[in-house]
Amino acid sequence: MGPTKSMQDITITLATKPKASLGASVFYPTSSPNIENSLSDVLVVFLNGLVLSRRAWSPAIHHLLSNFSDNDQHPPTILTYDRYGQGDSDPDPSDEPSSIPYGHDANEIVSDLHQLLTQFTISSPHLVNLESTRLVFVCNSIGCPLARIYARTYADQTQIAAYLFLDSMMANTDFVSIFPDPDDPGFDPGSLPSGISLQELRYARSQFCKFFHPTVPNAEHFDRRKLAEMLPFPDAPLLPLTAVPGGDRSGKKAPLLAVVGHDWNEFAEQCEKGTMAVTKQVINTFMNPAWASYNDGLLRLVRLPGDPRAVKIAVGCGHFIQKDDPEFVAREIKHLLDNLQAPR
To answer: Residues in domain AB hydrolase-1 (predicted)?
Structure first.
């Protein structure tokens, strides 16, 4: 197929918000795939977390495109973008100055995403429109709950064929309450494992409150305060069924879903040595088990009889898996795309 092409930077202005622009990057396939192994109707969409912009996906996408090229295969269309107030994008014009530091919420974000995908698919050379496009969502952190809200909101207008959740944010917690409150009247100091002090527990709660509590502002002015009400359970609502390619929407099947969690030891190490400075023992005793349980719940968003799936662990990776091991992310995406072409 020749040298691997790279992503192209573009700017997109939504018809619904003409006074602001979104920074995006796109890969357009140069030649039509063969009919037998076609991904020509697939759009892979990357959904960022709060911290890393769309640029953080570039190494993983490079590995993905190289994989296709090395195997003489045709990749699908790929889209990354920065939400309003993030990366190369303008601030959200719907935010009122009086609402700062809080502005738009998750519902507004998924509405913008739907408008973006509607416009993008119509203008793309290999896609017809959004309704006839098979979407693949690749998400990290808060991008995962956003994908779930989008799927629920636009179930009748889209076909989301596959999801890759990379260390999803735990949408149903304030993060602080994961740790026991040593100042609660009912707290039993004897319940703490040996080696964890009350002072360490208080410090962990204060640090997670400072950095991760839903009331903490962010550069996007993304108001996360009601996210736990919107997604109170990791395993519900179920991800919508998707139409069978080539058929009508009456023939539907479960979407593909892969859930990836961080490496406990690496995450704990990063928490201890980074800005958080919370000890590994505290993280491994409270935070990591809670996160693992949440990830197990995410797997149940797709119900299949005799389902052998399990949460995959990105060995050596902390929360930002696409940054710590882009080759791993590329392999996971390729695996999903290969399965989209295989009979199910």
So the answer is: 44-331
Taking all residues of the chain, what is their mean pLDDT, rounded to a whole number? 92
Strands (E), the chain: 8-12, 22-27, 42-47, 77-81, 134-141, 159-168, 242-243, 252-253, 256-262, 312-314
Please state the domain extents for the chain: 8-174+220-341
Single-letter residue type at 194 = S
CA pair distance 163, 336, nearest whole angstrom: 8
- Strands 256-262 and 159-168 come out as parallel
Q: Which CATH class is domain 8-174+220-341?
A: alpha beta
- Label residue 288 left, alpha or beta by phi (over 0 means left) and psi (-120 to 50 means alpha): alpha
pTM: 0.94
CB-CB contact of 272 with 325 (8 Å) = no
68-102 pLDDT, tens digit each: 989 888 899 999 999 999 999 999 999 988 778 99
Q: Is 19 helix (H, G, I), strand (E, B) or coil?
A: coil
Q: Report the candidate in 265, 262, 239 with the shortest Cα–Cα distance to residue 312.
A: 262
pLDDT value of position 304: 79
The whole-angstrom separation of Cα 101 and Cα 194 is 41
Q: C-alpha angle 322/327/332, rounded to 5°?
A: 80
Q: Give the whole-angstrom CA distance, residue 297 versus residue 291.
A: 10
Q: What's the rounded Cα separation, in Å, for the pair 35 and 38? A: 5
**Measured between alpha carbons, how far is 210 from 123 in angstroms, rounded to an integer?**
43
